[in-house]
Amino acid sequence: MSICRNRAKVTEYGQPGLGLCSASKAVLKLLTKSWAAKYGPSGVRVNAVSSGPAETEGILSIDRDVALKTG
């Protein structure tokens, strides 16, 4: 059995205007690690995938260069 979560790189860098988003993503990052520690010994694989930013209007409105560089 496997559990796979998507996560965002926004948890790795502080960016203006993304405090709440970063905090909620950080919770999911640590929850994934906690699940891996709890369920891993039972044979359950728990992973997180961080694909980086997509060039959406929301990302581009923050700061295109910063968003793509830190992604």
From TrEMBL:
Organism domain of life: Bacteria
InterPro entries: NAD(P)-bd_dom_sf, SDR_fam
Protein name, per record: SDR family oxidoreductase
